[in-house]
Amino acid sequence: MIVKMMITFDYNPETNEYIPLKQEIVKDKKKDSALLMAEEAKDSAEPQITLTDNKYILNESAANLIGVKWEDRLDIKYQLIDKIRFPIIGKDTAWGTKSGNKLTKSLTVSCRGNANSLLSEYGDTFSITPWQGHEGLFVLVGNKDRTTPDENVEVTEDENPENDLEAIQDAIDDTDYEINNMTFNFN
Length: 187
Known about the structure:
The protein is an alpha+beta fold. Helix content is about 20%, strand content about 35%. The protein has a domain at about 35-140. The radius of gyration is 29 Å and the shape is elongated. The model is unreliable at about 150-170 (pLDDT under 50).
C-alpha cells in the first residue's frame, strides 16, 4: 500500500534531532477490491467482466469473444430468459442501434449512475456466454444469486398441467373430419 503523507516536525540542526508535531494522510492509494479482481482476471482464459464504481473492465478473453477493439461501442440491455432477467452485452451493431459506450484502449467501458447500480444487482464479476440464436450478443452471468424469477413477470402456465395422453385423447371429439374439394370453401 502506498500512502502519501504530510508530516510537520520541529527540527534542531545543531543536535540533528526532530520532534514530530503533526502528521496527515494526503492520499491513500489502497486499491479497490474490484480493481484487484480485474487485474487477476486480466490474463485469465475465461472471458470475464469486472464492474467497478464507474466502469466495467473486460479481460482479453472477453474482448476477443465479443470481437471488440478500441473505440467500438458496447451496450448492455436486459432480457428475460426462462423467466429470469439477465444482462446481455453486445456491440451496438449487434443490437442494431447507435447507443452504448466506447471501449477504451485499456479495455474499460464507462458505466455510471443507474446503469451501474442496475448491473451491480447481478454482481461485480461476470462470466460471458454466447446467447444462443442471437449472433454477437452474450449473456452476463454475475456472481450474485439471481436464480429466482423476476417479480414483475407473470407466470401464465397451468400449475397442474395434464401430461396424460389418454386424458387428452378423451377430450378430443371422436368424430373424424375429412376435407375434400367438395366440402372445402375458400373465403
